[in-house]
Amino acid sequence: MKHSRNTLVRIVVVLAALALVLSACGSSSKKSNGGSTSTGPTGSVVFGAEQWPSCLNPITQCANSSWLQWLVPIHVLPRLAELDEKNNFVASPLLTELPSIDNGGVTGAGKTYTVTYHLNPAAKWSPDGTPITSEDVKFTWQAVLKSTGSVTTTGYDKISSIETPNPQTAVVHFTETYNDWPDVLGGFSGVILEKAKFPTGPNLGKAMNTAIDFSGGPWTLQSFTKDKEVLVANTTYWEKSRIPKIQTVTFVPVTETTKEVQAIKTGQVSAIYPQPATDNVPLLKDSATLKSIFGVTTQYENIWFNNKPGKPFADKNLRAAFSYALDREQLLTDIVKPFAPTATLNQCAAWITGVGPWCEGTAFTDIKPDSTKVDSFMAASGYAKDASGIWAKGGKQLVIKWMINTGNKRRENTQAEFIPLLAKQGFKLVTDNSDSDTVFQKRLPAGDFDLGMYIQVASPDPTVTSILDTKSIPGPANQGQGQNDTWYSNPEADKLMETSDGEQDKTKRADLIHQVDKVLRQDYVNIPLYAFPSMLSYRTDMLEGPLDQFINNPESNFWNMWAWSKK
Amino acid sequence: MFRFIVRRMLWAIPVLIAGSFILFVALHVTTDPVKAAIHHNVSPDALIKFKHDLGLDKPLLEQYWIFLSKFFRGDFGTSYTSGAPVWPELRTALANSLVLGFVAGLFYLTVGIAIGVVSAVKQYSWFDNLSTGLSFFGLAMPPFFFGLVTIVLVGTFYETHFHSSTPLLPFIGGVYSPSTSGFDLVDRIKHLILPGLTLSVQEIAVYSRYMRTGMLETLNSDYMRTARAKGISERRVTLRHGFRNALIPLTTFAGIDFGAVAGGLIITESIFGYNGMGRYFLDNLHNADYPMLLPWMMVVIASVVLFNLLADLSYAWLDPRIRVD
Predict the structure, then answer these.
(1) ipTM score of complex
(2) Chain B partners of A260 at a C-beta cutoff of 8 Å?
(3) For A229, what's the count of Cα atoms within 13 Å in the CB-facing half-sphere?
């Protein structure tokens, strides 16, 4: 017995020792250098991140995640153009001014289209202090094109060459007029990389996995692991107004809603940027130490009609009747406001008021419930209600298949509430849902739906040619890659969209976009609902400053955390 | 004994190959790294280049052979997603999962077995009835729910009811608190408590039921009556003869259980953001990152084989009548 007990004790001791050894091996934390102790930035804060990227490379698949942008590149890497709090393109601190037609920075048209950037002579890489030059700009363009697994080459593949007449001038030649040039090497996801750090050339497919050891932004990346990211104030940043007030910012993953709520409520983290939903908004109400602010993202959710020939909504009268049957206000109140109390109805087909001057906010204001118009439009297309009160033509009931992605509670709740309501107006809708992959990868591109409810992104550049132009309808001409999944086609809209894409004067372009919006409204292209909300929750006893200044910005509210202070 | 171990280790090789091939095919059938990585608007030429760069344009068998030959040479490859070498990340995740598994395992085995023994010895007593009721409660408690409840309890509930400004236990930061730099044993242990408890709640219920049943069988067997008739004390009869024999069926279950730990405790690790094999698997499955997933599978298969071998060996230790060779 004694022998057995001793053996058991030995096993327990050995296992405990093994656990401790493994514990040390498993440690992925890195030693902190403690940061600067000089005057200037002070203190440290912890923020929560809802998603956690698996790697840091800003030009490969790692950059597929918005949270990668929000955690690292926007704080550490310089860019050419950037977005202000109203989502207008402006010059970043790397530029002396934003190129424009007026200042001669944007010239030519077609194959002679050229954008000339003048770099700020004060701009320097940290920590080595070397200037950021046009060679870095050229190298980054090549890296985007040549890196294995580059996440997108859109725009970069329209550059024919980049001239570098001097270190502070980069002349970018495009193969065609390209109005969205600010999104290339800038905008939301474009960055500039330090050429000297990559002596093996521009294929950066295996670079920047867990470290970016140079900075041209307000912060430097001290460490990045599966458990946390540590950013330290870059006190040598040339734009003095953006030198952070906080010394160290640590981001930690809080990917589960309950945990995220507990983390902010108990002060384990000082701020979170959650996706608002019915399971977190009620728990994050304002209190003595907690404040939640709502904004809008650049994403908007609409109900989209499938105009594909043979589908019911190829009939414009049916689109019109359905538009006047659905109560958008009720949908907003019952479905959206529980998680986005400040949400308002969007009144543009493919733009939102928070992003540039493109949405006038008037085109769809008359789309309100109106049973007289419903009856009138349905009658115009030869429909009449049958004995059961459902619209029918030629003795056949109209049955509309409503597609959403399964698991999306918001959309499922919409179907559950509005299918019975619409039935009272004679529309027989049936759910026709699939998983996300099937909806977005297969059924939408194949036009296999009658009615859809999904989100699109309103880019700061207002072009919608890729989603609404006739040439973008998937087919042999575009090798099936077109993204006009609703098969909308109107030569008048095509002409306006194409003219707008070539117009370089912002005011004239805005006017053209407003005209497009009016045509889209006349065609009842879709039913605009709302811009998807953004949300910031922070501890009022821990943080102060302009925390919500960029809440409507795709860069997230963390973009200007250089201006935040620790209480 | 030595020959038995060598034989079992050799048998493990075809098991590894067969298992990895089945899973390799399953992964290719159910996931697509190109779809996971590439945006909707990528041109067909770019897709072809992407596949070529990653070697995905080669025949399936060739891809498998390339992986296998590299793996057995110690070259675990690099991630499709990040381009980072696989081994350092896998090593960290494995070590973290084993730590959690061993610590939680020691806890739930000790508690579960102790409850089972006492329940059997004091059959139909208030303790037996209470432990039986609690075990059903534990069995019915989903780990994801229990994990979230523990977070609320040590978080806002504790702060509110105990007038504290900090949570009772940390629940963010994974294996360390965000402010910790380097190895810190106390912080490390604190971060093991909640995931360990979450992992243990069902396991204690399971092991206590197994142990109770095993003990009742042995306590009522003929050789136990013989031992008592010889005048051996009840305590010695229970612990030396009953307990030891009742452990044998439990050993098989524990071997399988511990083998599975190396595969990761997916739910527990996900809830607590614990950087272990479960989270490793989920992250890489989402990206369809084959080079990251295939070595994970090899480690899981190897650990199942290893722990089953250890279970077999422990039979001999528990019951000398069993000869492994």
Answers:
(1) 0.80
(2) none
(3) 29
